[in-house]
Amino acid sequence: MQHSQKNVSSASPPMPRSPFQEASGDRRPTGSTPAIELRQVTKRFLTPRGQTYTALRDLSLSVAPGEFCALIGPTGCGKSTTLSLIAGLDSPSAGSVLVMGEEVHGNDPRIGYVFQTDAVFPWKNVLHNVAAGPLFRGVPRREALERARAWIARVGLAGFEDRYPHQLSGGMRKRVALAQTFINEPQILLMDEPFSALDVQTRTLMENELLQLWSALSASVVFVTHDLEEAIALADRVCVLTAGPATIKGIYTIDLPRPRNVAEIRFDPRFVQLYHDIWEDLRDEVMISYERAKHSS
Amino acid sequence: MSEPNTLLERQQSIAHPTAETDSAALAALVRRRRRRRWLINALRLLLLVALIGGWELGARLGLIDSFFWGRPSGIWQQLVTWVVHGTAQGPLWVQIAVTLEEALLGFLIGVVLGISFGVLLGRNAFLAELLGPYIKAANSIPRVTLAPLFAIGLGLGSQSKVALAVVLVFFIVFFNAFQGVREVDRNLLANARILGANRWQLFREVILPSALTWIIASLHTSFSFALVGAVVGEFVGSIEGIGLMIQNAGATFNANGVFAAMLILAAVALLSEIVITALERRLLRWRPSALSEVTL
């Protein structure tokens, strides 16, 4: 699969960069097999004290091919757990997780994952960090490095190939992480609060770039965040999760037109309306989780 | 100044020098730093001269009994005698070579064994739990006390010294390798797995580089322990080596001889430290340099 798709990135020149413009194209969910499907998923953990902790309870969710779905919920409600189940890093206690109609077993090469914290390899320079995926998957070295260079240019880091992660700013490291994930051309992209550590300006910039990269890739995205503005600005659909154990509280279709400019869409009256509606739902969960945190401490 | 500072913003600011006053200020800064460097070196030299001069003076004035505590000029004479006429056991360089060889061999074997077992147990929770108490018990034994045992079992040749050095080095490297493997960032492991790494790639590209920080830190201490192993082994029973020289000097109330042999050992240890630091620089190039620049 890697080989059949490689031309897309290596042969075609990097897209013209216009950070506030996302390539157009309608990508409403279609009626075919969902890219990701969670059926009545429950996940329990054993705490060190020997008690069980239920992170997810009867969570059902389906993401259409090419859909951008945001999961939002209070801190510690099981959003990340959901992602690790889809990625095959962990398995559900009950229920089933399907990717492209098949049950998840271990790692699926069609999945890409962008982590909340820096997960770039500190001992590899930018070039080898980005080339890591293809190299792991057996792409010949020359070709892997060539593709990595193209992707580095595409995320705006040309000239930084020899730098090590500690020599880069937080935003630049995030670009490396994006290139590292996108170079594998995932059909499913899981993102766990990827921009939460960035300052607000860098964050808006990165959100726009993400939309731009995503529109060229046509992957299904599950984007976990606790920031409602970010969720609405990016997603086709926003799923509100309850305070742990997480289950779906409400699903909202975001009918804002694409291409979107994340920096400006916040002023759109429709955006404000959606924000207001979803916040009504989210607020209760946030309060519950806040009260719990207060009592447990 | 070491490597160029790399944030995009800084590059831009460097690319647009505002005025010539900047370069003048910079020159002043460089001058001040150079002067400080010079002062520190001068004071260091002065301190050394004062220390050795004080010792020598004290010995000559009879404040320090040079029969028991030696004196710098005597130590120097002893060194010259050894270099020119050789030691009681033969030429000086042979003694150095023997001890160095024992230490080096013990060091290498200990490091290889330590890393292998550290990684094995670090990756295998079952084995770690099974062997944990025994390893802790073995580690709590003061291991130099094994020297007589090795001398009995392996004889007066170099094997008994190498064995002692191996035992001393092994545990230091082992615990560091073990800890290093355990401390690998879980996110990095998950990331590598999702990017497509198999078990071997995971080990070579993520676990090993991550543990290397710990392992290399342990090499600094472990080489001095290898030297201790070789020298103590020679104390207990040997036919050549620096340890034997110290043993002989002590037995004949030659305090200067003990100090002179100590100086030779210190020089050997210092040289090895330089080699290991160079190795560290090479292998850990990816680390922020600020950490390695402040050294004592």
Automatic annotation (TrEMBL), chain A:
Residues 36-268 form the ABC transporter domain. One of its GO terms (molecular function) is ATP binding. Keywords: ATP-binding, Nucleotide-binding, Transport. CDD domains: ABC_NrtD_SsuB_transporters. Residues 1-35 are annotated as: Disordered. It comes from the Bacteria. This is ABC transporter ATP-binding protein. It comes from Thermogemmatispora aurantia.
TrEMBL record, chain B:
It holds the Pfam family BPD_transp_1. It is found in: Cell membrane. It comes from the Bacteria. Residues 96-280 form the ABC transmembrane type-1 domain. InterPro entries: MetI-like (IPR000515), MetI-like_sf (IPR035906). Gene3D superfamilies: MetI-like (1.10.3720.10). GO terms for cellular component: plasma membrane. It is a multi-pass membrane protein. The chain crosses the membrane at residues 38-55, 103-122, 162-181, 225-246, 258-279. Keywords: Cell membrane, Membrane, Transmembrane, Transmembrane helix, Transport. GO terms for biological process: transmembrane transport. Belongs to the binding-protein-dependent transport system permease family. This is ABC transporter permease.
